[in-house]
Amino acid sequence: MKTILTTLILVGIIGFSYGQTDYKVIKVNGSITMKSSGKNLSTGTVFSDRENLLFGQPTAKAAVINPEKGRFVVTPENANDLTNSKSNFIPGLSNISSRSGASSLRNIVDMKNYFSGNFMIFDSTTIVINSPDFPIDENNFFYCRYKYNDEDVNKKLEYLGDTVIIYKNELLSILGNPISSEDVTEMQLFYYQQNEKKSVLINSFNPVFAEKSLKEEIQVIIDELSSKTFKEKYDAIVSYLNEFYGKPDESNLKNWLKTEFNLEQK
Fold first, then answer.
1. Residue 163 scores a pLDDT above 80
2. Degrees, nearest 5: CA angle 239-210-41
3. Quick check: helix, strand or coil at residue 250?
């Protein structure tokens, strides 16, 4: 496989940065190696903007952060994107939107839009279903279906009043035995009506689970932005998740950040 060598020269939003700037790695997709040490970039690695990087694949990229410069995405292919620069740093996406609030799920169209694309599942994920067409009780409920070892696995979702609760550990277990989230790449959400013996497909989605690696990545962002406000930290986290994982639900994300990192609006 062809190796791509790129020398880094950082360009800031306003102009050139001539002093050395250190960046910490949040996440790496693919293989990127520091020429000076021969070590691969990984979560938590610190390197300077003067480092020569070897990209193992044309699609390799890394999310990196500096407390003052902000978050960037390192790629091997944007050398010509910035005028008069050989920079392979591009600013991290500024999109900080989150998935529409669960309280807005009033009909099947809302649910189809909500349960679509990359859907983030935290340790405990709650969704409010505020629709008379989808009552929730012992005879009418939602369940998820996915394939495991070429067999269908159906998981009835817990509920409390009009709130559906997805427990990650329960979802990723079969006969009480945990399974790897890597083995579950697609799910379907159904609504079951017992009186009619009928299942209604709501939508298919790609589950993205909050695993240990994600917690380590978010910790890097929080640590590097320790002097920033809650909003600045939160916006950076949402932007990062949008770019590398999927659009998170605001209330579930904030609960997760509070539980895992004691990060909350004071």
1. yes
2. 65
3. helix
* DSSP assignments along 157-219, one per residue: PEEETTEEEEEHHHHTEETTEE--GGG---EEEEEEETTTTEEEEEEEEEEEE--HHHHHHHH
Dist CA 146 CA 115 (whole Å): 14
At which residue do the structure tokens 């979702």 appear?
A: 157
Which residue is it, tokens 């649910």? 111
Q: Is the sign of the CA dihedral 91, 96, 99, 100 positive or negative? A: negative
Could you report the per-residue pLDDT of 216-233, keeping only the tens digit for each? 999 999 999 999 999 999
Q: What contacts 68, CB < 8 A, 6 or more positions away?
A: none
Rg of the Cα trace of the chain?
Answer: 22
Q: Where are the beta strands (DSSP E) in the chain?
A: 4-7, 22-29, 32-34, 46-48, 52-55, 61-66, 70-74, 89-91, 118-121, 124-128, 140-148, 151-156, 158-160, 163-167, 173-174, 177-178, 187-193, 198-209
Q: For the whole model, what pTM was predicted? A: 0.82
Name the amino acid, one letter, at 95: N
Side-by-side strand order, sheet with 32-34? 4-7, 52-55, 32-34
Domain boundaries, the chain: 4-91, 93-266
